[in-house]
Design a protein that fits this description.
The complex is a heterodimer.
Chain A (H helix, E strand, L loop, with lengths): L2 H26 L7 H7 L2 H15 L13 H15 L2 H22 L1
Helix pairs in contact in A: 4-5
Chain B lengths: L1 H5 L1 H30 L4 H11 L2 H12 L4 H11 L2 H13 L4 H9 L3 H14 L2 H29 L12 H10 L6 H16 L7 H26 L1
Classes of the chains: A mainly alpha, B mainly alpha.
Chain lengths: 112, 235
């Protein structure tokens, strides 16, 4: 298949499947009652799903070296999580998390 | 349309998303760079950002496309990755229920990791469907605009940013900012911990199934702890 056609097939089909996934249960439960157990379980979607997304991102080996074998992204992420827990602020989490990573990477360089 | 955009809830949602948009700029740039490197033209890059509107799916699609994977494999893998959207959809369903179907269909398009987490927080505070819907529309509009613009900037100029700045770390930081404040109850901590361990343990699963599977396992863990806690306090 021609490259551009293949790419556009992927774009349109994945786009459509994503939209149907997004709409699925919103449409399904629009006219039905949700079972109480399901409603209870769905409270934990953000906590579980976001952690599952974040953990692999943080553990991905970084370009700038490691601090005595420790990926500096791990302590930086922990610092960011503490900041987020107490401040609930995206901006504070972002800025302090980035600064923490840069400091840790600068410390890592002379050693690694 | 104009009265929607002029509403207080819409503007609050839009403004509330701006810090998250800032953090997601690197993600958009990465998607644009990836698309360019894979040989996509600017129109296809725009198409991916506009229609797929999911960083994780775009990065994966572009990687598989560059590696020469068959169309069906790319589509299936991206679909599996997008299964988490089913969970977001289910969690949003009770909140959007009072809104008319046309609203539900439009708002569904804007459902992403970020807008979902922000919307849930807002609905839990206000319990106002119409205001929450407008707030969600504001969040989604801000994210979508930022997403399309940064994807295109990445396509044309993304390689100008030095890798040593580690700007890609801003992406997990955005998610951490959303998730860490949730850990104020025991069941939520259980859900997060179990999901985190599970995603590592299941890393070997094909097609990024580990993500959705770990999410589900975490949800079950949180629910079990929640049920046990209820039974304990009922005694």
């Amino acid at each position: 298949m021609d490259g551009a056609l293949k790419l556009w097939t992927v774009i349109v089909v994945v786009g459509a499947l994503n939209y149907l996934s997004r709409l699925s249960f919103i449409a399904f439960f629009a006219s039905r009652e949700m079972p109480p157990l399901l409603a209870r379980a769905l409270k934990f979607v953000p906590a579980a799903m976001l952690v599952a997304l974040v953990v692999p991102m943080v553990l991905t080996p970084s370009v700038a070296g490691t601090l005595q074998g420790v990926n500096p992204r791990i302590p930086a992420a922990i610092i960011a999580a503490v900041v987020a827990f107490f401040t609930r602020s995206t901006l504070a989490t972002l800025s302090l998390g980035m600064v923490a990573l840069w400091v840790l990477q600068a410390l890592a360089r002379p050693i690694g | 349309m104009r009265h929607l955009i002029a509403s207080k809830d819409f503007r609050e949602g839009f403004v509330e998303m701006l810090p998250a948009c800032l953090g997601l700029i690197p993600f958009g740039l990465v998607c644009g760079v990836g698309a360019q490197a894979a040989g996509a033209d600017w129109l296809a890059t725009l198409g991916m950002a506009t229609i797929i509107f999911s960083g994780a799916a775009q990065v994966l699609a572009v990687q598989l496309y560059s590696a020469g994977a068959p169309t069906a494999v790319i589509i299936l893998t991206c679909f599996v990755l997008g299964l988490r959207l089913l969970m977001y959809s289910a969690a949003m369903a009770p909140l959007l229920k009072p809104l008319p179907p046309s609203w539900q269909r439009s708002l569904a398009f804007l459902l992403t990791d970020q807008s979902f987490a922000a919307a849930i927080r807002r609905f839990n505070e206000t319990h106002d469907a119409r205001g929450g819907g407008l707030h969600f529309l504001g969040c989604g509009a801000a994210l979508w605009l930022m997403w399309v613009i940064t994807n295109l900037i990445g396509f044309y100029a993304g390689n100008a940013i030095p890798a040593s700045w580690s700007l890609d770390f801003a992406v997990p930081l955005c998610f951490i900012a959303l998730v860490a404040p949730l850990f104020r109850t025991v069941p939520a901590v259980a859900a997060g911990l179990v999901a985190g361990v599970a995603v590592l343990a299941l890393d070997a699963l094909p097609m990024k199934l580990s993500l959705v599977a770990a999410g589900l396992i975490g949800i079950v863990a949180g629910t079990i702890v929640d049920l046990m806690r209820d039974r304990w306090t009922a005694r």
